[in-house]
Description:
The protein has helices spanning 17-28, 35-48, 59-62, 98-108, 111-124, 137-141, 155-168, 175-191, 213-231; strands spanning 6-11, 31-34, 71-76, 81-86, 89-90, 130-134, 147-152, 204-207. By secondary structure, it is of the alpha/beta class. The chain has a single domain (6-221), classed as P-loop containing nucleotide triphosphate hydrolases (Rossmann fold, 3-Layer(aba) Sandwich). It has a 5-stranded parallel sheet with strand order 2-6-1-7-8. It is globular. The termini are close together.
Amino acid sequence: MNQKMIITIDGYSSSGKSTFAQALSKKLAYSHIDTGAMYRSITLLAIRKKIFNSDLWNVKNFIPILNHLNFQFKWNKKLNQTEIFLNQENVQSEITSIEVTDKVSLIARIPEIREKLAVIQKKFGNRKGVIMEGRDIGHRILPHSELKIFMKGPIDVRAYRRYEDFQKKGKKVSYEEIRRNIFHRDMMDISRKISPLQKPIDSVEIDNTFLNIEKQLDLVLQVIDKIRKKNKI
């Protein structure tokens, strides 16, 4: 009993996936893989390579660079969070910038990039004891996972949470700008042809509008206990 399992968390932008995934990974002593951070890291790389500096994206020249990507997720005890390293560089603080946020949906819709990241993500998910979050994890990347979670919430609530987060970090961004960005990302996620955001049929849905992190954990831990008893794991 209590053998480790695979848990996937999908959901809308700013729905609290990362906060919940980190809390759950600490509770279970599981690895936490934030696939959104992977797309943001590539977006940061694209900005550095000036891919967006022309109306005609130089995507063909950018794609080969992705053959040499190395992602690592490491726990920062001081900050009490998982951080992403791209080619041995800690890019966690840079990938949350509004510039990256504005561009990440454009990168995420490119088929070649999604395919390359899908291969890497599936390798991360080959081992048990992992919590992987994103947009298409439960129904595309790790459809065999024992527990699938789908998180959602009203756009105004999600936008205000992101606004508060920026304020705490001293970043000057208006609530209206953040709300527009989240609405745009929702539309891009839902409507893209390649791996659109969708709720897995066998997932547990969490609307955390009125649920704090402790109540969310209690809910999911009860579900995990039922799965373990049912499957004898």
